[in-house]
Amino acid sequence: MAKNASRWPARSPIRGVFAVLFALGFAAPVALPAAAEPVVVATRVIHPGEPLDASVLTTIHTKSRVLSDAPFVSAIAQTNGKVADRTILPQRLILLSSLRKRSAIDAGALVPVTYKSGALTIRMDAVALTSAAPGQAVTLRNRDTGRQIEALAQADGTAVLLP
């Protein structure tokens, strides 16, 4: 073995400079803490289809920036008239994609259907195959013929066929 050779390979002086800078905190820019951000969380488990009201929600302020790319509920007013689409766990972010409008027509319900064209008005009952919020399309099955039809759901729980 050579007289000047050591067990450890020689270190580059640049490597030592980076180690010192890193130890002093100069290696990467340090992010300053952001202002507290309001976040709405549930106080208990909310199951799918269950309406959200202010009694089961609370607003907390986070100490740092919320690390979520998905839009989340930041005010209790954003949950008015909405129901849970997925299970919402307590003290967790409530994503807007986890909420949906309250259904005016539920799947399996008997729905009064109206068709209007000028002076002609036809009324019948049909079975809803899908749930729908007001203004959404709903698929219905005619009880007499078994044919499927699509109509527009109304806020009062009825459906209107479009000409």
Question: Your description of this structure?
Answer:
A hairpin with a 2-residue loop joins strand 5 (110-117) and strand 6. With 163 residues, the protein is mainly beta. The chain has one helix and nine strands.
Please specify the SSE layout and strand pairing.
Elements: H1 13-24, E1 37-42, E2 57-62, E3 82-84, E4 99-101, E5 110-117, E6 120-128, E7 137-142, E8 148-153, E9 159-161
Parallel strand pairs: 5-9
Antiparallel strand pairs: 1-2, 3-4, 5-6, 6-7, 7-8, 8-9
Short description:
The chain is mainly beta and 163 residues long.
Strand content: 25-35%
Main pleated sheet: 5 strands, mixed, barrel
Can you tell me the number of structural domains? 2
Task: Give the second-level CATH assignment, the architecture of the largest domain.
Answer: Alpha-Beta Complex
Strand order of the largest sheet: 5-6-7-8-9
Regions with pLDDT < 50 over 5+ consecutive residues?
none
- Rg (CA only): 30 Å
